[in-house]
C-alpha cells in the first residue's frame, strides 16, 4: 500500500501510484489537483478490486459503469469520463489499460460533423468546449444537407444557405442567431477548402442584426448639468468640449453631426448658416448656442 499526497492506494492500481503521481507533476497539476486525481484513482482501484477486475478491464464501457457506481454512491465530483482522462492516458501509455476505442460515425451527417470538429481542434486551435458549441450550432444544417444528398454537397447553393439561416432566425434569439451565422460561415469555409462544395458559400450567410429595442435612455437633468459644469471655460479645450456637449444635450444632434461641424460652416460676420444642406441643422444649432457658451 502506497501513500502519496496523503492518499492511500490499494488494489490493482497501487503498483502504478508513484508513476501516476510523477506524471501528474510533469503535466503541471498542482498539489491539490494531484491529490484529487490520486483520490479518484484510489477509489477506482478499490472498485476494481471489489468486482474482481484488473486494469486491463478498463474499457470505455467499464469506465462508464464505474462512474455510474460512483454517482450512485453519492459522490458529487469527478463524475464524467473527462475526470478519468489523465489516469487512463497514463495507463494506456504503459500498456496497462486497453487502447481507447475509436467511435465510427453512424451516419454521413455525423461523419461530416466529426470531420469539422477535428478541423476546429487541430487547425483552428479551439478548445473542446468551444468546438462542441460550433458543431452543435451547425448540426441541423449538416443533417439537412446529408439528408438531401449525403454523397455530394456540390449541389448546395447560396440560396440554400440563406434560406436556412433565415428560417432559423425566426425562432432564435438575435444573439443565438448571430452565433449560428458565425459557426455556419466557419463550416462553409472549411467545406470550401476541402473541396466539398462548389464555391465560397460563406459569403452567402447574411448578417444578423442585434439592436436593442427602443430609444437610448437619456441622462437626467442633474447629470447633464454636472457634465457641462465639468468643462473648464478658461481653456480653449474646455470651451470646445462645452460646445460639443451642449450641442449633444440641448439640440439633440448626433455625434457624427457634431464631429463633422467646422467653424467655417458658419458666416460669423453675417450670422448666417452654411448653405450646405448636409450641415444646415448642425450649423444652425451651433450658432444658437454661441451666446450661451461664449457670453
Structure description:
By secondary structure, the chain is mostly helical. It has three domains: 93 residues; 97 residues, DNA polymerase, domain 1 (Orthogonal Bundle), CATH 1.10.150; 73 residues, no CATH class. It has a two-stranded antiparallel ribbon. The protein has a two-stranded antiparallel ribbon with strand order 3-4. Helix 1 packs antiparallel against helix 2, helix 5 packs antiparallel against helix 6 and helix 9 runs antiparallel to helix 10. The longest helix is centred in the middle third of the chain and has 22 residues.
Distance between the termini: 91 Å
Strand order of the largest sheet: 1-2
Low-confidence stretches: 290-295
What is the CATH third-level topology name of the largest domain? DNA polymerase, domain 1
Number of strands: 4
The biggest beta sheet reads: 2 strands, antiparallel
Secondary-structure arrangement, i.e. CATH architecture of the largest domain = Orthogonal Bundle
Structural class: mainly alpha
Strand composition percent: under 5%
Q: What is the number of domains?
A: 3
Helical run tally: 12
Q: Mean of the pLDDT scores?
A: 82
* SSE succession: EEHHHHHHHHHHHEEH
The amount of helix comes to 55-70%
Kindly provide the radius of gyration, computed on alpha-carbon positions and rounded to a whole number of angstroms. 33 Å
How are the SSEs ordered, and which strands pair?
Elements (H helix, E strand, L loop, with lengths): L1 E3 L2 E3 L7 H10 L4 H21 L8 H13 L8 H14 L13 H15 L5 H22 L8 H12 L4 H21 L26 H9 L6 H15 L4 H5 L6 E2 L4 E2 L6 H14 L2
Antiparallel strand pairs: 1-2, 3-4
Helix pairs in contact: 1-2, 5-6, 6-8, 9-10, 10-12
Amino acid at each position: 500500500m502506497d501513500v502519496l499526497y496523503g492518499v492511500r492506494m490499494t488494489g490493482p492500481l497501487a503498483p502504478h501510484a508513484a508513476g501516476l503521481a510523477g506524471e501528474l507533476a510533469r503535466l503541471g497539476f498542482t498539489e491539490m489537483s494531484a491529490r484529487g486525481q490520486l483520490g479518484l484513482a484510489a477509489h477506482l482501484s478499490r472498485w476494481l478490486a471489489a468486482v474482481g477486475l484488473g486494469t486491463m478491464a478498463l474499457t470505455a464501457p467499464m469506465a462508464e459503469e464505474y462512474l455510474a457506481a460512483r454517482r450512485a454512491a453519492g459522490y458529487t465530483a469527478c463524475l464524467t469520463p473527462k475526470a478519468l482522462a489523465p489516469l487512463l492516458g497514463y495507463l494506456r501509455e504503459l500498456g496497462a489499460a486497453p487502447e481507447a476505442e475509436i467511435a465510427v460515425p453512424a451516419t454521413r451527417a455525423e461523419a461530416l460533423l466529426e470531420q469539422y470538429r477535428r478541423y476546429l481542434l487541430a487547425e483552428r486551435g479551439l478548445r473542446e468546449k468551444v468546438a462542441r458549441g460550433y458543431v452543435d450550432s451547425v448540426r441541423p444544417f449538416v443533417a439537412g444537407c446529408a439528408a438531401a444528398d449525403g454523397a455530394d454537397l456540390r449541389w448546395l447553393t447560396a440560396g440554400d444557405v440563406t434560406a436556412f439561416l433565415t428560417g432559423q432566425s425566426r425562432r432564435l434569439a438575435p444573439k443565438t442567431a448571430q452565433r449560428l451565422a458565425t459557426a455556419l460561415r466557419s463550416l462553409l469555409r472549411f467545406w470550401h477548402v476541402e473541396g466539398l462544395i462548389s464555391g465560397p458559400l460563406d459569403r452567402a450567410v447574411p448578417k444578423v442584426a442585434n439592436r436593442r429595442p427602443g430609444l437610448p435612455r437619456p441622462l437626467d437633468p442633474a447629470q447633464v448639468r454636472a457634465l457641462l459644469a465639468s468643462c473648464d471655460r478658461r481653456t480653449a479645450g474646455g470651451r470646445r468640449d462645452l460646445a460639443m456637449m451642449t450641442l449633444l444635450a440641448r439640440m439633440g444632434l448626433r455625434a457624427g453631426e457634431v464631429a463633422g461641424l467646422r467653424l467655417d460652416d458658419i458666416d460669423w460676420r453675417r450670422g448666417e448658416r452654411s448653405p450646405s444642406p448636409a450641415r444646415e441643422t448642425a450649423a444652425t444649432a451651433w450658432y444658437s448656442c454661441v451666446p450661451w457658451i461664449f457670453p
